[in-house]
Amino acid sequence: MEDEIKAEFNNSGFTFDKEKEILQKCATFCINFKLTPADLVSSWEIYYLNRQINGTVVEDAEMDGFLGYLQSQQKVAIDEKELDLHIYSSRDVDMILNDEDEDIKEDVLGTPPPFKSQNHFSEPSDSTPQTIGNISSGKPSKLATPFGRRTDKLVVKFSINNKPNTENREKEDDNENHEDDDIIRKVKPGKRCSLIVHGSGPEIGCRFMYDRIEDRFNALENRISKYATALVSSGQYEEPLDPTVSSQKIIFTVGMIYCDGEGHLNEKSTLLQSSAEHSGGQRVRIELQNLSQFSIFPGQLVGIEGINPSGHCFIASKLVDSIPLPIADDANLPPAKKQALDQEILPVGVSGTQTELSVIIASGPFTTTDNLLFEPLRELLAYASKTLPQLLILLGPFIDSEHPEIKKGTVDRSFDEIFRAEILRRLQDHVEYMGSHARVVLVPSIRDANHDFVFPQPAFDIHPANLRHQITSLTNPGIFEANQVKIGCCSVDILKHLSGEEISRNPKDGKLSDRMSRLANHIISQRRHALISLYVYMVRGAVLSKILNLLYNFWDSFYPLYPPAEGIPLDFSLAPEALNISLIPDILILPSDMKHFVKALSLGERGEEKEQVKCICVNPGRLAKGEGGGTFVELNYYGNPDTSNASIIGI
Questions:
Q1: Which residues pair with residue 395 across a beta bridge?
Q2: Which residue has the higher pLDDT, 635 or 552?
Q3: Above 50 in pLDDT, residue 198?
Q4: Per-residue confidence band for 543, with pLDDT thresholds at 50, 70 and 90
């Protein structure tokens, strides 16, 4: 065999540096992987081209990498072979025994056939934590991967169960199995949700990496100026003054938090940069000792009251990072003016109707680090095929640039080919099997090896045949409406980045704040000023065009941290409109490596009855973690966070 291998290599123009050792190893490869010498040399040529090896000498140092390539090829072959199999479940056996198999069509890619019964799940076991049924993607247990050998499947890690108080939900509740109520809420099949995409993100194929220092300066200056205008428009604060000028008088100023140095922000290194209009863009050190509580990070916009007796240090006595929604002015308006005000505000962020949506939310990676079989994605799609959500939201990375095989370059397909074969094809098969009511939304990540490395990101360039209205790709970040439920999502780990840069102080006698809620609030807290400014300017009789202009200008950012974290390719030539949060979301999706959560964030009070404005913030975690499974979120939204259900489920 060694002579045959040598002859095949010579015929292809290759020589050896350590002939004896290499031929012995190649003979072992042929035996272990059941390859002929010709097949082995063909595989070497593909590996040789992918690795861009110079010269025609086969080196012994490349044999370990070649072995890894052959192993990955074997896994792909096993994966493709399994896709052609129909894996029967106990339900199939029961139907066959009852002569019901005549009505069963062949399922798509091993997905279980649709059930005629409404009881989709087996009874949960008595063990803790509680598990959801025995849902399988049809993957044979003989595939010995760590993910395939896991014992805890579909474990409920955390749940929020709020019963909807609307009458139109009672009939559906009566038809459901009450034993399953605490586990999951099921949606009747065939209920298609509407979908409207908001915002003006980067176009597919846009140019990037062309931002200039001037672009960065203008973007930051505009943020400071518009924030100052919003605070003044609220009627609660006076015009901001220059904080760098020495004065014994208490003044009010507005600016952006900066760190004095390369390290992390602390109380001694906190600087404030005011606008070019008020201070020429100069920075001054902030003394925070007199503040009982605060939470700040680099890039945060704040209003500060205090004095600067020396001209070198501004001593803060009050810090403003958010403003409550006003209620007094609306009560004093005449009825006609109040009605006009409501008509303008409702389309923007406050809906007067109850909206309902069932959604599954998952964030990549979608395959484990030991292979590219995408087993967690299979399990997720199998779960979705049984729970029948109206919307499936998947956030990248899909083809993770941090995956070991992607980083080593041992794959024999392009990244785009892997994305279309392993991700897009599976989603197409899923929606075709589920029917026209199924909808999927994809959000890219800067870790996607097959996509532009820039933030904000354009949408994926996908055009699935006949499924354009079922599989939709958004920009990163992106905002859309589904059944009038406003959803904002960003796949960049802003929570982790803020966690590493934020400093805070809790009041000595006060209750400790929830850190994750506080970090999430930083993303949308300043968005409130848009409604405040809109409210006040309408009271003062401003024209509609001015109102809409103010509303547009005061939108907040999905990524308020500046400078951005290391590795974030923030492009300010794209950021001014693409990073804006254009409306108050009902659901805010912020995937993070930090602990998964579902939290209701309070954004303030509205109206005479002081109605709480809330937003559900979701960190679904990662669907795959290392060689094991991660988590995803199942959410049933019924009009507002207080009447919605959510579960964090371990895959």
A1: 363, 443
A2: 635
A3: yes
A4: very low
Q: Residue 627: which of 432, 363, 404 has the closest Cα?
A: 404
Q: Distance between CA 500 and CA 177 in Å, rounded?
A: 45
The CA-atom distances, in angstroms, between 511 and each of 44, 506, 521, 595 are 64, 8, 17, 22
Half-sphere exposure of 409 (CA within 13 A, CB side): 8
110 φ/ψ sector (left φ>0, alpha ψ -120 to 50, else beta) = left
Could you tell me the CA-to-CA distances from 510 to 293, 317, 330, 399 in Å, in that order?
9, 18, 32, 46
Residue type present at position 512: L
Q: Is 591 exposed, middle or buried, given 0-12, 13-18 or 19+ CB atoms closer than 10 A? A: buried
What are the phi and psi torsion angles at 584 (to 5°)? -75, 115
pLDDT for 526 equals 53
The helix or strand, by DSSP H or E, that contains position 642, with its residue range, turns out to be strand 640-650
Q: What is the mean pLDDT of the chain?
A: 77
**Cα separation of 607 and 147, whole Å?**
51
State the DSSP H helix or E strand holding residue 216, giving kind and residue range, or none if neither.
Answer: helix 213-233
Cβ atoms < 10 Å from Cβ of 446 = 22
SS (H, E, C) 616-633: EEEECCCCEECCEECEEE
Beta bridge partners of 441: 393, 472
End-to-end alpha carbon distance in the chain? 46
| Mutual angle of helices 37-50 and 2-11, in 10-degree steps | 50
| 133-186 per-position pLDDT tens digit | 444 444 443 457 888 888 888 899 888 887 554 444 443 444 444 444 434 344
d(CA 331, CA 344): 16
pTM score of the predicted model: 0.71
Residue 350 has a pLDDT of 39
Q: Do 286 and 253 contact (CB within 8 A), yes or no?
A: no
Range 219-233 average pLDDT:
86
In angstroms, the CA 234 to CA 489 distance is: 28
Asked if residues 222 and 576 have their Cβ atoms less than 8 Å apart, the reply is: yes
Helix (H) or strand (E) holding 74: helix 63-83
Angular region, 265: left φ>0, alpha ψ -120 to 50, beta rest: beta
| The token pair that represents 438 in the structure block | 């199924």
- Tell me, what's the pLDDT at 160? 86
Q: Are 617 and 519 in contact (CB under 8 A)?
A: no
Residue-level pLDDT at 355: 80
β-bridge partners, 557: 580
